[in-house]
Amino acid sequence: xxxxxxxxxxxxxxxxxxxxxxxxxxxxxxxxxxxxxxxxxxxxxxxxxxxxxxxxxxxxxxxxxxxxxxxxxxxxxxxxxxxxxxxxxxxxxxxxxxxxxxxxxxxxxxxxxxxxxxxxxxxxxxxxxxxxxxxxxxxxxxxxxxxxxxxxxxxxxxxxxxxxxxxxxxxxxxxxxxxxxxxxxxxxxxxxxxxxxxxxxxxxxxxxxxxxxxxxxxxxxxxxxxxxxxxxxxxxxxxxxxxxxxxxxxxxxxxxxxxxxxxxxxxxxxxxxxxxxxxxxxxxxxxxxxxxxxxxxxxxxxxxxxxxxxxxxxxxxx
Length: 318
Ligand SMILES: Nc1ncnc2c1ncn2[C@@H]1O[C@H](COP(=O)(O)OP(=O)(O)O)[C@@H](O)[C@H]1O
Ligand SMILES: N[C@@H](CCOP(=O)(O)O)C(=O)O
Hints:
Blueprint: H1 9-19, E1 24-29, E2 37-43, E3 46-52, H2 61-73, E4 92-94, E5 97-103, H3 115-131, H4 145-155, H5 161-178, H6 181-184, E6 188-191, E7 200-203, E8 206-210, E9 217-220, H7 221-232, H8 243-256, H9 261-287, H10 300-312
Antiparallel strand pairs: 1-2, 2-3, 3-5, 4-5, 6-9, 7-8
Helix pairs in contact: 3-7, 3-8, 4-5, 4-9, 5-9, 7-9, 9-10
The structure holds adenosine-5'-diphosphate and ligand LJ64HWYM.
């Protein structure tokens, strides 16, 4: 469980009172997650998730919270942030940290997905991209290329020569891709940018929601799709591509929004970009850890393997 900040029952009661969400019955720290402090709040009116933001600032947060609200209103199943009944604000303060209370989604994460789950994620991802076109706020993906360039020199001293060589050469390749005309032609908009298996809820084969939008930002839609393919349609042990699950996700995505010529051209490059992004962030979290109770850093070598697989076996679109 990642609980960086302990919240007392009294603090939770005071927050619930301001939002008129009922009387507190239980406050429980949530297992899983590595970025923020999360609690389940149960009241006599329902269940909610309280998040205290540990890295994001009050200036950055409205983009994410209003995006969730916008998508929820557009019919995409995402948790809707709850407002203070007097001020109407959806960004709160708890224990001196910016905080949000959102609806608790039903269902559970599907950690061993089949093709049917990948198809459901692909179709909903495309619907989410289209719904995001009318969202007016803008904020870059804060874990995009500039952050990779900034963070690579910090993690490089911790790597052996082979891994360091791969990181340097892939970063050079991604800077080259980002300067290309095909890249400039990619459609873009608000993207989730971290839609892994543990950030989607299912009830059986029925997708019940996308959550954890706190790495979202304006970026290419293709990057978002690549991040999903790199998690949902690979063999976790080896990092190898799983053709059946990838085909299901791509076909379902394209059933809603067909890929453009530039997207088809750059899919392999973006799969590599998605692997590099999470390799760097996992290295950073692993070698420069933060204090939190029961925080479990993700294994960085997993994304080194995924990246090597993506380079050695470029995906072919039929
Ligand atoms: N809106 C929600 N509905 C249901 N469960 C949630 C919701 N938000 C978070 N959770 C639960 O909390 C866990 C950690 O949340 P997550 O957003 O991944 O953490 P972090 O903000 O640290 O990335 C999730 O794996 C999930 O079980
Ligand atoms: N999905 C990322 C890191 C963020 O993890 P989350 O559990 O907080 O969504 C990874 O796997 O590296």
